[in-house]
């Protein structure tokens, strides 16, 4: 295609088309089915075709893209998606994300974009303040909590091995003193992948049992620390496990671990945001004592995908583990070059939507959003649990709850209860009125509800409870 229009006209045409499709989509997001209407086979049929030999006008491409994609979209941007922990996108964050693309900054170094460098300083300081972390902690904007784990554990690896006299950046891990990770049995899978990526291997992870509340108990941790007192150790705690939102008892565990020389890392993918709420902050009391923290912006701060944050109490270890020098890069002694802090080289300026999200809500608005989600999770759990045929398993202490739907036929087995729970969960999703995910918890299948979208309100709770009632009635 040779399109003779000017770059300005071509760009305007494409952006107008995208804005119109986006606005149309988001105007209807409350009414759209929560689940995708097309599966993999239909989406392959809609999208996969031979490479085009010639191009098309950009607005035509955007129209075609919107038409082809629509049936395969899951309405995670909408208010009745309660599966997994996804969050939505605040208006200011979404619009700032568009600007991020329009500006197309490469946020690798300050010389490449002073604006993209300094907005990280601004947003980084806001995040530390909101989350109650030390004001002088180091920070990095990464792809998600997975990337944040890798970043923080690389800093931990440097710190622990330097103390053993081992230069891991120069010599790698072959022959290095082994490092172990002590964590609870309910840790997230991203921790295991981080352990693989940074060369510890999954066998370095020691799973400790949790108490009745899903929290790693001090006695278990003390025993594990004593079992190999000279082994360099990372203690990995959770700020909200994925099933019930359990938060470990930081005030007792962190001093215990640090007294034995361990580095304490917190997986706070969504739970760290409890610290931004006066009502829920008590759940994470003492979390600021840790050595590093990983969390997400794309979950509970409701910035568009992808965006995660890594923080450490040890800027020198963080920088030593991540920074790299190259002759062709222009370093600025005055500035904070982002490539010194992240595992990426060229990268998106993720601080821009983060800055916009926080600027649009302020401290009070962030707290209100967190609290509204928790209230909705509690309302959903209470409403569903009260339905005939439902059984509460875990009432949310934060934003995660569990219910199940036992099979009431005489002689029903635990396999029947599991099958019935999966069937009701699937029926609710198929209705399109709400989307919940299923999980296995303490050996039982359960329907898991998770609430992290800024749009969700009491009317969505009522509609979603009604959808479960309907599924139970039709079962
Ligand atoms: C507790 C927990 N940790 C880590 C992660 C990984 O986060 P991300 O998908 O942003 O990399 C998740 C994702 O759902 C999570 O729930």
Question: How would you characterize the overall build of this protein?
Answer:
This protein has 475 residues and is of the alpha/beta class. The chain folds into 2 domains: 7-75; 95-360, Type I PLP-dependent aspartate aminotransferase-like (Major domain) (Aspartate Aminotransferase, domain 2), CATH 3.40.640.10. It has helices at 7-27, 40-47, 58-69, 91-103, 114-130, 145-163, 168-171, 189-197, 218-227, 250-259, 315-322, 351-385, 414-431, 458-474; strands at residues 138-142, 180-184, 205-208, 233-238, 263-267, 292-296, 308-312, 391-394, 400-404, 437-441, 444-450. Helix 12 (351-385) packs across helix 14 and helix 13 (414-431) packs across helix 14. The site of pyridoxal-5'-phosphate has 11 residues, from helix 6.
List the helices and strands and how they pair.
Blueprint: H1 7-27, H2 40-47, H3 58-69, H4 91-103, H5 114-130, E1 138-142, H6 145-163, H7 168-171, E2 180-184, H8 189-197, E3 205-208, H9 218-227, E4 233-238, H10 250-259, E5 263-267, E6 292-296, E7 308-312, H11 315-322, H12 351-385, E8 391-394, E9 400-404, H13 414-431, E10 437-441, E11 444-450, H14 458-474
Parallel strand pairs: 2-3, 2-4, 4-5, 5-6
Antiparallel strand pairs: 1-7, 6-7, 8-9, 9-11, 10-11
Helix pairs in contact: 1-3, 4-12, 5-12, 6-8, 6-11, 9-10, 12-14, 13-14
This protein binds pyridoxal-5'-phosphate.
């Amino acid at each position: 295609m040779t399109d003779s229009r000017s770059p300005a006209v071509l760009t305007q045409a494409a952006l107008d088309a995208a804005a119109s499709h986006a606005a149309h989509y988001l105007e209807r997001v409350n009414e759209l089915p929560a689940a995708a209407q097309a599966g993999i086979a239909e989406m392959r049929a809609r999208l996969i075709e031979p490479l085009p030999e010639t191009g098309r006008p950009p607005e035509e491409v955007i129209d075609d893209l919107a038409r082809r994609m629509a049936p395969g979209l899951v309405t995670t941007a909408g208010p009745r998606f309660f599966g997994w922990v996804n969050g939505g996108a605040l208006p200011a964050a979404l619009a700032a994300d568009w600007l991020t693309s329009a500006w197309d900054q490469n946020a690798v170094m300050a010389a490449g974009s002073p604006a993209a460098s300094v907005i990280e300083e601004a947003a980084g300081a806001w995040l530390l303040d909101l989350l109650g972390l030390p004001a002088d902690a180091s920070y990095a904007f990464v792809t998600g909590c997975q990337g944040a784990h890798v970043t923080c554990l690389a800093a931990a690896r440097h710190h622990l091995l330097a103390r053993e006299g081992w230069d891991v950046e120069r010599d790698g891990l072959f022959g290095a003193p082994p490092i172990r990770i002590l964590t609870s049995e309910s840790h997230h899978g991203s921790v295991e992948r981080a352990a693989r990526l940074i060369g510890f291997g999954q066998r370095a992870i020691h799973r400790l049992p949790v108490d009745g509340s899903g929290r790693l108990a001090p006695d278990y941790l003390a025993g594990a620390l004593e079992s190999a007192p000279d082994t360099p150790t990372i203690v990995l705690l959770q700020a909200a496990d994925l099933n019930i939102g359990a938060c470990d008892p930081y005030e007792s565990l962190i001093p215990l671990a640090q007294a034995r020389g361990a580095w304490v890392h917190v997986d706070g993918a969504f739970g760290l945001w409890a610290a931004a709420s006066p009502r829920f902050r008590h759940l994470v009391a003492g979390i600021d004592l840790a050595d590093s923290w990983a969390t997400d912006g794309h979950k509970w701060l409701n910035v568009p995908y992808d965006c995660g944050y890594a923080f450490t109490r040890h800027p020198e270890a963080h920088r030593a583990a991540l920074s790299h020098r190259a002759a062709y890069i222009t370093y600025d002694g005055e500035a904070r070059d982002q490539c010194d802090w992240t595992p990426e080289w060229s990268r998106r300026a993720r601080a821009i939507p983060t800055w916009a999200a926080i600027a649009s809500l302020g401290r009070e608005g962030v707290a209100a959003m967190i609290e509204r989600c928790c209230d909705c999770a509690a309302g959903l759990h209470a409403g569903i649990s009260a339905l005939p045929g439902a059984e509460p398993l875990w009432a949310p202490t934060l934003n995660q709850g569990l219910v199940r739907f036992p099979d009431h036929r005489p002689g029903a087995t635990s396999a029947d209860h599991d099958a019935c729970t999966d069937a009701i969960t699937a029926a609710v999703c198929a209705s399109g009125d709400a989307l919940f995910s299923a999980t296995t918890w303490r050996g039982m299948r359960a329907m898991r509800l998770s609430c992290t979208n800024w749009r969700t309100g009491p009317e969505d709770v009522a509609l979603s409870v009604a959808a479960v009632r309907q599924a139970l009635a039709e079962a």
